Amino acid sequence: MPLRRRRVLARNPRSEGLRARLVEEWRQPREDVPEPIIVEESGPNKPTHLFVIWSDWGDFNQQERSEIIMDAYEEARGSDLVSLVTVAMGLTPTEAERMGIEYE
Question: For position 89, what pLDDT does the model report?
C-alpha cells in the first residue's frame, strides 16, 4: 500500500478565538452563559475524554475541533494532564444529542 502524506489545511480564522474562549472557560467556568458545555470524563487510572458541546462548531471539521480542544486543554491544565486525554471531541448540541452524550 502506498504511503501518503496528509495535506495540512489552513486553520479557520476563528480558531484562535474559540481556543481562547475554551481556555477561559476551563480556568474560570461561567454559569451565566449556556455554551460551551465542557464534559470531562476521567478517573483514577483512567484516560480522560473531553466533549465540548458548542453551537459555534458548525463550520469546523472534526479534526479542527479536536485540535482546538487539545490546544486549549493543554494551555489551561498543563502538559501532564493533556497527555492523559484519549478523546477530544467537539460537537454541536444536535450532534451530542444524536450521540447520546449526557451530562449533569
Answer: 97
Count Cβ atoms within 10 A of the Cβ of residue 27 and give its class: 0-12 exposed, 13-18 middle, 19 or more buried.
Answer: exposed
Residue 12 pLDDT: 84
Does pLDDT of 44 surpass 90?
A: no
Judge whether 26 and 69 are in contact, CB under 8 Å. Answer: no
What are the residues facing 89 on neighbouring strands? 51
Using CA atoms, how far residue 20 sits from 7, 8, 47, in Å, is 26, 22, 24
Residue 54 in this model has a pLDDT that exceeds 90: yes
Q: What amino acid is encoded at 95 in this protein? A: E
DSSP percent split of the chain into helix, strand, coil, nearest 5 = 40, 20, 40
* Burial letters 28-55, b for 16+ CB under 10 A, else e: eeeeeeeebbbbeeeeeeeebbbbbbbe
Helices (H) and strands (E) in the chain, counts: 4, 3
Instruction: Give the integer Cα–Cα distance in Å for 8 and 41.
Output: 30
